[in-house]
Structure formats: structure tokens, C-alpha cells
């Protein structure tokens, strides 16, 4: 049973517009949520995280929103750039388990068109 | 560069064989994680080691095993390989504590033929 779900396999956005990537989870015990970006032939790169006690975290063009009641988080990229084209993975940490183990969604492939 | 080094980058082997994947974590990181990414799948957690001891197990097959050595590098051993074991295998390391992020290596692409 998937604890972290990314229901959109792909997303296409025009350069300069907003990209919104979504993620749903089922486990209320997750204490942190993270977003990773992955280019082909490279390992995932950490992008931004949010604690379960917060509802928003911002870092430059990237903002993550957390809605605990809906068990939903989203990553906003504004403005989107062609270099943002990559696969984005949502991940969650279950602090009650292994102290650091991350559970990943299947990813969303973002294409930003010039 | 994440600071996590994985070798080899590519590995092609036959069914029934055994291989060893190696990972050197970032300097100072005590925790090492192994993940498997199959085609069209997310990253599946396999196993975690912390300072030489197994900390957690995920979806790891009995044919697979891992260890972490005193110098903190880790090895993932895959035996009796099957076609379905073909995947990308990632190693990640972290400090373990309040910071949740783990840093990933570039992965080893294993192809079983």
C-alpha cells in the first residue's frame, strides 16, 4: 500500500508560469516532508522540506505547502524555467520508525517549455 | 556533487550471479540507506545502516544483504540474480537527527541478462 502518492505522472508548463506539483500521503506519523528533483542519469537532489508542524516553507522560487487535515502537500515553482524540467519526487519521513528513512512517491515528470 | 560516491556506475551480469555494489557516504554522515528504483517506479527503501549497525529494513529480498564497515562505507550484496532485479540502486547518507534530508549518490545501474 502506497503511503506517499503522486497521482500525476507528468506535467507540462510554459516558461515563466507557475508549476504546481501535488502529493498525498496516508500516514499521520510522518514528521517531515521533502521534495527531490532528479535529472536523467543522476541521483535525486534535495530541494526543499517542511516540518509537519508548519504549513508553508519557502526557498527562492520554490514553496512547499502542507495541508495536514487533507494529508496533502504541494510544491510551487514560480516562475518556472526550462532548467526545472526534471522528475520531482515527494518524500516523507516516519520519525517513529527508523529515524531517517524516507518513503517516496513515484514521481512527476515536469516539462517546462520555452 | 552530493559527496556520496557509488561504484560501479554500470553493471551487466547474468542470471544466477552475485554482485556487490559499493557506497561511500558524505564525510561525517553515519547513516547509509539503500534504495531501488525499477522502471516506472518510485524509490523503494531497502535497508538502512547507522554507524555499522542495521537500523531498519524495508522491501529487501532475502537474496539481498548489506553491511556497513568501520570506515562507514557500505556494500549491498545481491545474489542469485533474476531478470527482475534489473534496476537503479541508489545509496544515500544523512547525519540523522533533526535535519531530514538524505543525500544521494549517482546510482548503480544493474542489468541482469
Structural class of chain B: mainly beta
Instruction: State Rg of chain B.
Output: 13 Å
In percent, how much strand structure appears in the residues of chain A?
A: over 45%
Q: What is the total tally of β strands of chain B?
A: 11
Oligomer: heterodimer
Order of helices and strands of chain A: EEEEEEEEEEE
What's the overall geometry of chain A? globular
Task: Tell me briefly what this model is.
The complex is a heterodimer of chains A (about 110) and B (about 110). Chain A is mostly beta strands and about 110 residues long.
Q: What descriptive keywords fit this protein?
A:
heterodimer, A: 114 residues, mainly beta, six-stranded mixed β-sheet, 0% helix, globular, B: 113 residues, seven-stranded mixed β-sheet, four-stranded antiparallel β-sheet, 11 strands, 51% strand
Structure write-up:
The complex is a heterodimer of chains A (114) and B (113). The model of chain A has no long low-confidence stretch (mean pLDDT 93). Chain A starts with a strand and ends with a strand. Helices cover 0% and strands 54% of the residues of chain A. By secondary structure, chain A is mostly beta strands. Chain B is mainly beta. Chain B has strands at residues 5-7, 10-13, 19-24, 31-37, 43-50, 53-57, 64-68, 74-78, 87-94, 103-104, 108-112. In chain B, the strands form two sheets. In chain B, strands 2, 4, 5, 6, 9, 10 and 11 form a seven-stranded mixed β-sheet that branches. A four-stranded antiparallel β-sheet of chain B has the order 1-3-8-7, with no helix packed on it. In chain B, strand 4 and strand 5 form a beta hairpin. Chain B is globular. Chains A and B meet through strand 4, strand 5, strand 9 and strand 10 of A and strand 4, strand 5, strand 9 and strand 10 of B.
Amino acid at each position: 500500500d502506497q503511503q506517499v502518492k503522486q497521482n500525476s505522472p507528468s506535467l507540462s508548463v510554459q516558461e515563466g508560469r507557475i508549476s504546481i506539483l501535488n502529493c498525498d500521503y496516508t500516514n499521520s506519523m510522518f514528521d517531515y516532508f521533502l521534495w527531490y528533483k532528479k535529472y536523467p542519469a543522476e541521483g535525486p537532489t534535495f530541494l526543499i522540506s517542511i516540518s509537519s508542524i508548519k504549513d508553508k516553507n519557502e526557498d527562492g522560487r520554490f514553496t512547499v505547502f502542507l495541508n495536514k487535515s487533507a494529508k496533502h502537500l504541494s510544491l510551487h515553482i514560480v516562475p518556472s524555467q526550462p532548467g526545472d524540467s526534471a522528475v520531482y519526487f515527494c518524500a516523507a519521513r516516519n520519525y517513529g520508525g527508523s529515524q531517517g528513512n524516507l518513503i517516496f512517491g513515484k514521481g512527476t515528470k515536469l516539462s517546462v517549455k520555452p | 556533487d552530493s559527496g556520496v560516491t557509488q561504484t560501479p556506475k554500470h553493471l551487466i551480469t547474468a542470471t544466477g550471479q552475485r554482485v556487490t555494489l559499493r557506497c561511500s557516504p558524505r564525510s561525517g554522515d553515519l547513516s547509509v540507506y539503500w534504495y531501488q528504483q525499477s522502471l516506472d517506479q518510485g524509490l523503494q527503501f531497502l535497508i538502512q545502516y547507522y554507524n555499522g549497525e542495521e537500523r531498519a529494513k524495508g522491501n529487501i529480498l532475502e537474496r539481498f544483504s548489506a553491511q556497513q564497515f568501520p570506515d562507514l562505507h557500505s556494500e549491498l550484496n545481491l545474489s542469485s540474480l533474476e531478470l527482475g532485479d534489473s534496476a537503479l540502486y541508489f545509496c544515500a547518507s544523512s547525519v540523522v537527527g533533526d535535519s531530514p534530508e538524505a543525500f544521494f549518490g549517482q546510482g548503480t545501474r544493474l542489468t541482469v541478462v
